[in-house]
Design goal:
Two copies of one chain form a homodimer. Helices cover 35% and strands 16% of the residues of chain A. Chain A is of the alpha/beta class and 418 residues long.
Chain lengths: 418, 418
């Protein structure tokens, strides 16, 4: 996705002269967005356009925004408002965390029982028409949609409609039924369908928080490990990821995982070397993710940063905490320049334990705007003292466009009349 | 305000028979609200009415909800939605924290410069017509409106339009110009006007966080203290409150103060014995307010509890913290039954450092509904285990009525389709 563009506006010319040059439609979209930001209200109550000569391109190619739609259903109109807000902030990847333990809101044509049994209710389901509509809406705004169907953990909601997909065990955190051939047949069919719905090259497979206790409790799994010469649960997990990525998907898709499969507690689990690793530990921490990034870079994986950008966790940070988050520099971990090149970007993430359609927009923005700046703009654009003015202006712009952006933490500036 | 009522519904009768008996219109309003809660959706997709025989009255006469409109302006439509939500939860006092250091959004006919200079902008002003409209809207819902114009501290915004009202000093936290006769003339005129706008018997005068440094810096104040035989700053503060309450207001109004004038650090400052003291320390604390309540009860003042009900401070509490707040029992401080009778109720409070019209409704509710229950219902109605079901039901009801109630913390129950 080449998003670079050049924009030249001469507002002194009569009539006003503005030109965008870009190699792709994506670049043209970003240029138009910038142009819209040159339109400012004049003191006369009318609008005026600033002159400018801009040569611009993003610092990172992957500037994502993640929403969890399992813990709470987010309505399609609210997701569209989110896509609007993303485009206004030049974000280009909507990472859709579709399913999790709580609910299964995705309607599968092949396996309708998944949402019939697993969704919160019949109104809290994304129909195929909704999804295609959203993907198209995103595409028109220069946004790719990457779905996440997390596995082998965080799958309890799958078990409501398809109990055989889960390993039988007594603990609450179930795991995929790794020992059954039917599981792989099901996953093959399911993800084939997902592929026909989601055109993006990437699929997110989750892979986080795999507690093997459920597998430990199950004799069939133990036998399966013995039969397949899998000496421990890490080997079993690795086996599963290999099968998963080898399914019909392999040739045409690439994969993203949360960092857990290559985490510090692992002894060398190998993922597809082309996989992208999303760094999230410690969650919502402005600093401690750095050793993690350095370690995963050493393993040669490409990376996305999310740890300091869990915006659902501290909706009202104190000013000093806010500054810590604001100051996050994604390449500030200790590594070589070559390995730092493995960072393809980052994602702000909204987990919906406490959030639903009623408050996601006011909580997610303007926090996400700050994270968006860090991923588009050059490293040197980081100015704590001027940020309020810039984000107030951006907030005002979004509100005038109908996005219910929440107040800027600790700011009493009411200058935006909207 | 007698809010008691009796409600009898016989849904087996044809036609349905329902009767409300009450001594006042307030009681009738509360009975109608309860009746509306007996209307539930039937499994057929239609609505049905439950039979009931109810004799009901509130545990506390003052069940308030406070909004700070100085740090951020809250629009009139959002205030109306707040009044709606209050009535759906049988709250009966809207405590309007109109002004503070930040902005002065109240339009005074006699002193138009106050809002002209002190409001955030010309759109962030409550005109007299807006205010009368809100008071009428509240009244139709059985809600009294008590305005707070805090003094002698938290008045910086007054100084923008009327600099002479503030003591000249170098520190940021200005105080009222206590030594000038013009100040009292101004306050007299200002509050006379406030009285013509706000009909309620009570006025809230603030009185919180008076740091005397500003007075200490000013020679005229020092001379004034000497001339009036005021030996210390507490005496000066007491003098000020006496003058304030003796203004034309005295005969027709009663007063509410935050607890600070009778705080632990005071040596015996005396307020009007009829004043009501609003307990807020420590702020947003579920337990430590109790010694405070006991101490103030011993001084014989009537009291309102707010300390544990600062709902703007922890929008997403953990489950254990949530339970601590849920379990707050307003009379659980150590005192005699007689002195406990001095508690007239309590108020949930929304401070708007981080909140404005975009997010106040989703943050304030359903948190306030929980606090509302504790103030209306008998002491024994406290059940942590069933609360989710009850508040989910109430949230659903409010959402169906158009109130953008936020999600219930930590609840993944999506059963309300609205």
């Amino acid at each position: 996705m080449d998003e670079s563009y050049e924009l030249e506006v001469n507002s002194a010319a009569m009539p006003l002269r503005a030109q965008i040059r870009s190699a792709t439609e994506w670049g043209a979209l970003r240029g138009l967005e910038t142009f819209s930001q040159l339109v400012v209200s004049a003191s006369t109550g009318r609008f005026t356009v600033k002159s400018a000569k801009i040569k611009d391109s993003p610092r990172f190619p992957h500037r994502g925004f993640m929403i969890d739609t399992s813990r709470h259903f987010i309505t399609v109109p609210v997701l569209k408002a989110t896509l609007d807000a993303m485009s206004y902030n030049k974000l280009n990847v909507f990472h859709w965390h579709v399913t999790d333990n709580e609910y299964f809101p995705y309607e599968s044509a092949k396996f309708p029982s998944l949402s019939q049994q697993g969704a919160a209710n019949s109104a809290s389901v994304y129909r195929r028409a909704d999804i295609l509509d959203l993907i198209n809406y995103a595409s028109l705004r220069g946004i790719r949609v990457i779905p996440e169907f997390g596995t082998p953990a965080h799958m309890n909601s799958w078990g409501k409609g398809k109990p055989e997909v889960l390993t039988q065990c007594q603990i609450a955190d179930k795991l995929v039924n790794v020992a059954s051939g039917l599981t792989y047949q099901f996953l093959n069919d399911f993800f084939q369908e997902v592929k026909t719905t989601f055109p993006d090259k990437y699929l997110h497979f989750g892979g986080d928080e795999v507690n093997p206790t459920c597998w430990m409790e199950n004799d069939v799994v133990s036998q399966f490990m013995e039969d397949n010469n899998l000496g421990d649960y890490e080997k079993l997990e690795e086996y599963y990821y290999q099968k998963l990525t080898a399914l019909a998907l392999n040739k045409s898709r690439s994969f993203i995982f949360w960092e857990d499969p290559v985490g510090e507690d692992k002894n060398g689990l190998k993922l597809d070397p082309a996989a992208i690793i999303q760094v999230w530990k410690p969650m919502a921490d402005p600093v401690q993710w750095k050793p993690n990034m350095a370690r995963i870079a050493n393993q040669g994986y490409r990376m996305l940063l999310s740890s300091p950008w869990y915006i659902s966790h501290y909706p009202f940070p104190s000013n000093s905490v806010l500054q810590q988050y604001y100051d996050v520099e994604p390449l500030s971990f200790t590594s070589s320049a070559d390995l730092k090149n493995l960072v393809t970007g980052g994602e702000a993430a909204v987990w919906t334990e406490n959030i639903d359609s009623t408050n996601i927009t006011s909580i997610a923005w303007p926090a996400t705007a700050r994270r968006a700046e860090r991923r588009w703009s050059p490293e040197w654009i980081v100015n704590w003292n001027t940020r309020k003015e810039r984000f107030q202006e951006q907030r005002c712009r979004l509100r005038l466009r109908g996005i219910n952006v929440g107040s800027i933490s600790g700011s009493f500036d009411n200058t935006c009349v909207c």
